[in-house]
Amino acid sequence: MYKTIAILLSLLLVFGMLSCNLDGSGIFLTISESTEIADSNLATEPVREILYKDTNTMYVLHGTSLKRADISVPDPIWNNVDFSKPISEAVFIPGSTNKLVFSSAHTADSFKSVYVGTIGTTITSTIVAGLGNVNVIDIIIDGTTVYAITYNTTTDIISISEINVGTSVSNTINTFSSAIAPTAVHFVSPGVSAADTEKHFIFIHYDDTQGYINSYLTLSDLSTATAFTEFLNSVFELSDDTTKNSQIIGAYADGTTIYLVTNEGILITSTDNLTSFIAVNNNDPSEFMSLVLTSAITSIPMTVVTIGTTELLLIGGLSGIYYYDIASPSSTDIPLEFTSDDAFYSSLSSTPIMDFYNVPGDFPLYTATSDKWIWQTTDEESVSTQLL
Amino acid sequence: MKKLVSVFVFFLLITTVMISAQDQPVIEENTDDPPVYRYDLGDQIYSVSAAPLINLFIWIPTETPSVIAKKMKVGGYISLGWEAFIDHKSSIGAELGYSFAKSLDERLYTSVPILAKFSHFLIDGEFDLPISIAVGGVYSSFEDQHYFGLMVKPEISAYWNINDEWGLGLRTAYWFIPELYFGENSSKTSYGNFLTIQAAVKYTQ
Question: Could you give all domains of chain A from N- to C-terminal order, each with its CATH number?
């Protein structure tokens, strides 16, 4: 009997001494601060993209629909903006009458048609002349200029067309021969007012031998270029197979610095307009960001917020948000993931990030997550709140 | 100071078990017949159990209010147990389990208790009524936070012995899980308090 008690007490003391805080800030403390997530009528599937927000109204791509709500009221109701057709790629053009340029997949074949949708007293859409029955790679917006990137599988031609939103007519600016269709296109620009020499389309192709081919086309060369310029730099090589490249899945420009993110989770910077590159976190695979599960994810969200005197590049990850100090990065800084210790992030943790929306560099920040909700963060010290 | 208080409380629990474990005299109506015990020294019991895991409250001494309830949804707990009798009425053993529960905002809490267990059978026969105290370690995980610490689990059970080998029962257990921090982080110290009502199957060998 007493031997038993002695054993129990010994165990008590041993485990008491071993009661060490391995990491983290308090499991039960964190749990005690949790609040219930209310049901949302966005909860049927994730919000793909936060398109636009004016003073009170937010527009989001939810599944294949455009939805809007007055988010200034508690428990906003998300209403469908009904174009009577499913939406694939889309860009939002705010104005006295808001417009949406979008592609819509056909039900009878694998092609899409591009429309200019008008969001006024009535909701209408007009097919863009020249962009019906096409293979749309993406729709890009630069200020109020809208480009459609399409690929003709018969002629192996990539076409870049500019869409006149007023007349719903497209004008093909240039075409490029390519045996392989692009898998994705990114558009990186420091801002609408920046020079065209600082804006770039980044094309991603897949080749069985080379792996992914990352190349770019500068906007100023759009009408005159005859080919894309391939990124030939070792920073893009796959860490375990240097004969192949990792695809670029994220691109963001802040001033004169362009930030690229690869599928492997490596952040790459370029300060000379895509001439030379520096990989920030490629010393060891333990530094790589966990961003996507498969190569099927071709794009991840990125934005910049300002916290005090620090500017943070935010990168949407597979289970959270990574941040990187771009105001004063040291040579040893690498992108790190926010944890539940961070006030504004605690409610967003453990969910894939679908999109960010903010005035670049500023709060409030809106985050669309795969857990089917949008979160509003008013500043870096505040806990994010669910935007119903 | 808090460690000393904790140790004192556990001493109190152990003492309670000791008192209740005092051998009761066997009343023999016929002195020619030896006493019959269900369990003998060396008998072993293997058990599995499953239960809902109910968070009763979280106690955070430095917070106001210090007792915070309804922050976790009902989860689950499964366990494997083994015990060996050290006399006719008492056994020592071990229990290994896995528990899970979600916080209000749908984040997952999991824990793996690894416990040493002492039981005393108040009643044994067709029905067993053991009371137990289990002490050990528990590895808790909540998103990117992990903690290994102490766990204490007093328990009372009731079994119906179908035959000499098999029995079905219910166990009610109270979980006390301190999450201790020291120095400048001491304000994060908190104590998880849970309840399980386990359905159990046991096999006696």
Answer: 2-386 (2.130.10.10)
A-proximal residues of B, 178-197, CB under 8 Å: 178-181, 185, 188, 190-192
Helix (H, G, I), strand (E, B) or coil at A3: helix
Give pLDDT, residue A130: 93
**pTM of structure:** 0.71
Residue B116, token pair as written in the block: 């040493």
DSSP string across chain B? -HHHHHHHHHHHHHHHHHHHTSPPPP--SSTTSPP--S--TT-EEEEEEEEEEEEEEEE-TTSSSSEE-S-B--EEEEEEEEEEESSSSEEEEEEEEEEEEEBTTS-EEEEEEEEEEEEEEEE-SSEEEEEEEEEEEEEEEETTEEEEEEEEEEEEEEEEESSSSEEEEEEEEEEEEEE---GGGGGG-EEEEEEEEEEEEEEE-
Q: Do A4 and B136 touch (CB under 8 A)?
A: no
Amino acid at site A234 = S
HSE of A158, CA atoms in CB hemisphere, 13 A: 24
B8 Cβ under 8 Å from any chain A Cβ:
no
pLDDT tens digits, one per residue of A274-289? 999 999 999 889 999 9
Closest to A341 (Cα-Cα) out of A30, A107, A125: A30
Interface of B with A in 93-152 (CB under 8 A): 103-107, 109, 116, 118, 133, 135-137, 140-152
Cα distance between residue A111 and residue A161, in whole Å: 17
Q: Is B18 on the interface with A (CB under 8 A)?
A: yes
Q: Which two tokens stand for residue A376?
A: 């509003």
Chain B residues with CB-CB distance to A371 below 8 A = 106
Rounded Cα–Cα distance for residues A48 and B62 (Å) = 42
Which phi and psi (to 5°) does residue A35 adopt?
-125, 155
Cβ atoms of A126 and A139 closer than 8 Å: no
- pLDDT per residue over A20-66, tens digit each? 655 566 899 888 887 776 666 666 778 899 999 998 999 999 889 99
Residue of B135, B148, B176, B184 to mutate when probing chain A, most A C-beta within 10 A: B135
Give CA–CA dist B177/B135, Å, rounded: 10
B203 to chain A, any CB pair closer than 8 A? The answer is no
Cα(A158)–Cα(A138) distance, integer angstroms: 11
Q: Do B150 and A19 touch (CB under 8 A)?
A: yes
So what's the pLDDT on residue B20?
Answer: 44
CA-based nearest residue to B171, from B152, B197, B153, B151: B197
Neighbour count for residue A332 (Cβ, 10 Å)? 7
Written as six digits, the tokens of A226 are 């005859």
Write out residues in chain A with pLDDT < 70, as ranges. 1-6, 8-25, 37-43, 346, 372, 388
